[in-house]
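Can anyone check this?
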Amino acid sequence: MTLPTRRLLGLAAAWLATRALMLWLLVHDAAPQLGGIPVAREVWRLYRNWAGVLAEGTFPADDKLWQYPPGAGPVLVSPTLLPGLDYLQAFVLLTLAADALILAALARAGTRQGRTLLGAALWTLGLPLLLHVPLVRYDVQATALAVLSLLTLSRSPRAGGAFAALGALVKVWPALVLVGTPKGRATRRAWGAAAVTGAAALGVLAVTFAHPLAFLRQQGGRGVQIESFGGTLLSLATHAGWPGRAGYRYGALEFTGPYVDAVATASLALTAVAFVLLLHWRLTARHGTEATPYDAALTAVLLFTVTSRVLSPQYLVWLLGLAAVCLTSRRTSQRPVAALVVAAAAVTALVYPTLYGEVAASTPTGCALMTVRNGLLGTAAVLSLVRLRRVTATSPSEFAPASLKAEHTRRAPTGAAD
């Protein structure tokens, strides 16, 4: 048996063992040792009800908790199509299927020449750090589309763009994975395919379901979630006499009280700054490697995550998936960033569900946990951008992966290459 085969078998065995552990935790969902919070209730109480509304041909436009783009509709309806299972069982089964697809894509990419299986290992061992939460959220499905988009970009920019568009229709953020596509023809193909695929899919959803854009109204009303960076600031402020408190709004615990609107506005302003920073990088980057699209995707999602008014535990699923894609390449600049993301995922398991009561009450323990978790993510975001800028500014050559340059050189006739 060859060494690559042994490694692949080891990954498969590790995936089966860790996912069995996650399923065991799900069975003991509301155990006191896990914080006593039934995290699966979002599936059997919320997703299942929405699936019933969607089955009638409409999005739940009058439900303030509906904050998801129209592509979420088919994802939430799909468990009802599996016979012999209740909604929760079918949802978890489909989530595991998406999880396995991500592992297969990472493993296949990692076995190519010049690649590594570190990405597949990070995904296999990193996702269980979030305990059983990923099994009962649909972020794994969205992450699968983002991972497929990045891993197909070099071979087929159009396919990469199509996957990104489908992911964006499911959860918005996968649109960011195209920020690092090589300049020129590859970008035109990827972004063009994304636009066409997104428009076509949205058209189909608009014909199939009424009120496809209702989620925008609910998103506009979101406040400052207690787990966001702004929420951590307000939690710390309660120990300095700030009179605000946390309450259940829009499906999450959000702060209400003086200055909350100012913090929310500041978060939106920082998101705009993040966009400007990414645009500046895009315009000034002069050199790239095969890993640059992967690295840029992780940087972009990190920046938009840390500046968001909402930073739910399942957001770490996205970051773990993108960090895993980066580690499939030996030329990535994001290895220390991936380590920080893994550490943040481990702390997130303490934040939710294990000690969520402490976080919600803004106790010293809860504030410390949030400061550490968000400190890790903030450090990761800054370091990610710094390393991305450094590696793409070291040469005046065209910003394109080395593999594409080599292919262009091979195909060009003598004297025709620049």
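Reply from J.R.: I decoded it. The mean pLDDT is 91.
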